[in-house]
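Query structure, 162 tokens:
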């Protein structure tokens, strides 16, 4: 590009009616190269999606362990909150946080216009949404079931991440 610009400047300084036009065109990709790059992109997409979704339960267990350390659950029970109301409100709050993340993920998928997910029959999209719903319920209930195994925040976070 700079040689093109320089050559045009030289032609202009010598009052010549010549001009160099520069263009770059890539070669067409072969079918196996396209399939390979698509498989690599899908691998990295799934890898980072799994890592991102594993951080959501970790953020939820932080609150539960901190609440136990400060005895705020005990204070709420003394104030008259039933155990069902306590755990149900925690579940709803954690699930709402998870739903916002899932909606963001689906919007990003839509922005990328993933052909495997947004086809005309939408079966892949429905399967993804159902998977997100089931994973959110299962991961939240898993955290509530395993929070009594830990007394320290760091060990609970490491266990939840793994």
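Result returned for the query:
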């Amino acid at each position: 590009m700079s040689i093109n610009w320089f050559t045009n400047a030289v032609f202009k300084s010598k009052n010549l009616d010549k001009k160099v036009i520069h263009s770059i065109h890539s070669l067409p990709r072969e079918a196996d190269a396209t399939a390979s790059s698509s498989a690599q992109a899908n691998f990295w997409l799934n890898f980072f999606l799994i890592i991102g979704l594993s951080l959501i339960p970790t953020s939820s267990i932080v609150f539960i362990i901190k609440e136990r350390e400060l005895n705020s659950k005990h204070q709420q029970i003394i104030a008259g909150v039933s155990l069902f109301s306590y755990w149900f409100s925690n579940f709803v709050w954690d699930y709402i946080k998870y739903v916002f993340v899932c909606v963001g993920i689906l919007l990003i998928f839509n922005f990328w216009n993933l052909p495997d997910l947004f086809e005309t029959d939408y079966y892949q999209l429905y399967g993804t949404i159902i998977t997100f719903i089931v994973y959110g319920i299962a991961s939240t209930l898993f955290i509530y079931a395993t929070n009594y195994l830990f007394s320290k925040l760091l060990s609970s976070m490491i266990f939840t991440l793994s």
